[in-house]
Write a structure and sequence with these properties.
Length: 167
């Protein structure tokens, strides 16, 4: 999110994608409430201009993916002209299928390394601001990197650790 706010990437999502991530977070984090996540959704939509993709629903049924419940993601990506779907779940988005639409996938770790190498100063500022917003509890730079590591962002952590004083 933060790197989209800094203009390093163009993030796109749909209401269906919001619903999916919110269900997943609520399942994995019983300490959070639907109301809190809904507030996050609203803030995301307000702060990242033109991020919400609509009008793609009519092509969902025509798409084939290993998991039919993922077709809405591909449909939204096709409709908005995305060139990448950022996901940990790459096996459900086969390259042969996506390439027909000029789309590839990227694991979040690989995706983050690109902007970090292309514009490290801006990305480090975005990371610093994101870490600074974590107040309950506040996170040291080391604690923040540990959280990223737990999310399997190992390459990103290696690169960020080289500039830990900047985050």
């Amino acid at each position: 999110m933060q790197i989209a706010l800094y203009g390093l990437v163009r993030a796109r999502w749909s209401a269906m994608i919001h619903d999916e991530w919110m269900r997943s977070v609520l399942r994995d984090r019983p300490d959070l409430t639907a109301e809190r996540l809904d507030r996050t959704r609203i803030l995301m939509n307000q702060h990242v201009l033109d991020a919400v993709v609509t009008g793609f629903e009519s092509i969902i049924e025509s798409l084939e993916l290993p998991d039919v419940d993922d077709r809405h993601v591909l449909a939204a990506a096709i409709h908005c002209g995305a060139d990448k779907i950022v996901t940990c779940n790459q096996k459900d988005f086969p390259a042969e299928t996506l390439s027909q639409h000029g789309i590839g996938t990227a694991h979040p770790d690989d995706f983050l390394v690109g902007p970090l190498e292309a514009d490290s100063k801006t990305l480090l500022a975005a990371v610093k601001q994101h870490r600074g917003r974590l107040r309950n509890p506040p996170k040291s730079a080391d604690d923040y990197l540990l959280c990223l590591e737990q999310q399997r962002l190992t390459q990103t952590v290696v690169k960020l650790r080289q500039s830990i004083e900047s985050i």
